[in-house]
Amino acid sequence: MNPLLQPYNTAPFSKIENAHFLPAISKLIVETKAEIDAITSNSEDPTFKNTVEALENTGDLLDRATSIFFNLNSAETNDEIQKIAQEVSPMLTEFSNDMLLNEALFERIKTVYNQKDSLNLSEEQQMLLDKKYKAFSRNGANLSKEKKTQLRKIDADLSKLKLTFGENVLAETNRFELHITNEKDLSGLPEGVIEAAAQTAEEKGKEGWVFTLDYPSYVPFLTYADNRELRKKLAIAFGAKGFHNDELDNQQNVLRIANLRHQRANLLGYNSHAHFVLEERMAETPKKVKSFLNELLEKAKPAAQKEFDELTAFAKELDGIDHLEKWDGAYYSEKLKQKLFNLDDEKLKPYFELKNVIKGVFTVAEKLYGLHFEEVQNIDKYHADVKTYEVKDDEGELVAIFYADFHPRAGKRNGAWMTSYKPQQIIDGKNDRPHISIVCNFTKPTASKPSLLTFNEVTTLFHEFGHALHGMLANTHYPSLSGTSVYWDFVELPSQILENWCYEKETLELFATHYKTGEVIPMEYVEKIKDSATFLEGMATLRQLSFGMLDMAWHGSDPSGIKEVKAFEVAAFDDTQLYPDVKENCMSTSFSHIFQGGYSAGYYSYKWAEVLDADAFALFKQEGIFNKKVADRFKGFVLSQGGTMDPMELYIKFRGQKPDPEALLKRAGLLQ
User: Fold this and answer.
1) How many domains does the chain have?
2) How many C-beta atoms lie closer than 10 Å to residue 337's C-beta?
3) Largest Cα–Cα separation, the chain
4) Which pTM was predicted?
C-alpha cells in the first residue's frame, strides 16, 4: 500500500519510503489530468464554478505529495531522493506545461474571463479568475504550436538545471572541512563553539576539532578565530562553492539558467526575465526596482564607506593590518562592537536558550493574535529533531498544525525557510486548516550546554515564524490565494515585521532568561542591543543592495554575451564593493536564492519589504507593541487575506496610507 495514495491528514512520514514517491507522483499526475479532462469535456457552457473553481480544486493530492517530497529534498535529503528529484522534476514541469498549454482549457477560462464584468463575482473570486487567466496567458497559452514546443523544452531543461545547481552547492558544503589538531589554532573561539567542533570531529571519527561550511560552524569561526590564515582558508572555501572547475562546478549551470530564462521571457513577448517576473510584483518594472535600489544606494554608500574606513582604522590600530579582507570583516566588526557597546554574542547567548526563545515567540503570537501552541507527540515526523505542535485559538479551535526543525545535519541545506504541507482553504463550507513548517540551522546542544542562540539566530527564528503566522492565520476560500501565496515582494512583510519585537524590552523580558540562573536579561544588555541595532548598518545595507543588483544584472537584460561568470559578477558589484575581490571566489555559483529558489529578479524584495515593515512597525510603536487593535488590523488585512487582493490595497487598509521609505532610513540610522 502506498501511503501517499491513501487518505491522510498530517503527512504520514514514518510510513513513506523513498520507493513510494515516483509511483505515487506518476499516478497522481494521471488522476489530475483526468480531473482536467472532465472540465474540458463538460458539455455545459463554461462558468466560474464549472471551470475556474473546478480547476482550482484539481490536484489536491498531487500538491500534497510533491510538497512532502520537495520539503524532504531540502531538509532530509540523500542520494536516492536527489536521484528521484531528477526524474520527478521534469515530469512535473511537463505536467504543468500540459495544463497551461491546454487549448481547450484555456478557451473555457478565456470565455469566463471575457464575461467577468457581468458575473457578479466577489473580490476573491475576481482575483482567482484573474490569476488563473494570467497563469495561462503568461505561460504560453497564446503561443503558436512550434513556440509551445520550444517553451516545453526550456522549462524541462530549467527544472533539471536548478536541481543540479542546488545539489552541487549542498555537495560542496558537505565535502569541505577544516580539521584542527593544534589547540593554539582555537584561540579566540568561545567555549561552546569549540565544544561543538569537538563533537563534529567525534561524529566524523577524527581527533581534535572539525569546522564546516554549515552556518553554525562557519559564522562563529569567522567572527572569533584569532588565526587569520585559518579564517582566510574557511572564507575562501565558503566563497568558492561551485567555482572549482570540477564535477561540482556551477558556472555553466548559471550561464545556462540565465540564458534559458531570458529566451523564455522573449518567447512570451517580454524584454527580459525581470520584465516577465515583475509584471506580477508590487514593484511592476525593472526600471522601478533599479531606481529603488539606486535611491537606497545613494543614502547607504557614504555611510557604508565611512563605517568601512573606521573598521579599517580600528583593525590597523589593533593588529597593524593595512588592508581589510573579507575574512576580517566579521572578526573586527565583533571586536569593534565589543569596544563600542561592551556587548558580544557570547555575553548574550546564555540568555537565549532555544527552548525559551521558542516559548517567547509563541507568547508574542498569543499576545498579538490569541494563538496557543501545544507540543504533541502523536504527529508523524521525518526526523527525531522535528518538534510538532497543535495551534489553537482562544476558543480552543484548531488553527494549524506546526512543525519546527532547528538543527543542521548532512541531508539538510543551509539557511532557514518556512514551508507548508497542506494549505488552508474553505471547501464545502468547511474551513480546512493548514499544516505549516519552519526549518532552521541553529547550534546543536552539546554535552554541557543546551542549544544557545546568537542574537542574529533569535531574529532568524522570529523571521521564519513571521512567515509561519502568515500561513497559519490564512483565512481564504482558495488554496492558491491562501497564506503566503502573495506577490513575492509582499511575502517578506509578515516575516520582517516580527523581527522588530526582538529589540523591544517588553518582548525580551518574556523569554530572555539565563539558562543556568533563570535571571532575566539585564536592562543594560537590552539597551545595548537597541543601541547596536544600527551598528555598521550602512555596510549591511550595501551588502543586501549588492545581492539585489547582482540579481538584476543577471535577469534584467540579455545575458547571451556573458562569457565569464566571475568577470560579469565583478562588474555588477562595482558600485557596492568595499572589500578587495577574492579571485578564488564567486558568489553566483552558490547564490541559491536566485538560481535554485524563487528569488530570481526578486532579491530586491527583502529591502522592499523592509520599507513596508519599518513603516508598519512604526504604527505598533506608536500605539503599543502589543496593542490589540493594531494587531487585529494587521491580522485582518495582512496575515489572513493571503493573495485575495492587491497587496498595496491591503497595506493601505491596514495602515491608512502608503508606506513611507523614510521609515526604513530612519530606523537604519541612515538619515542625518
Assistant:
1) 2
2) 17
3) 82
4) 0.89
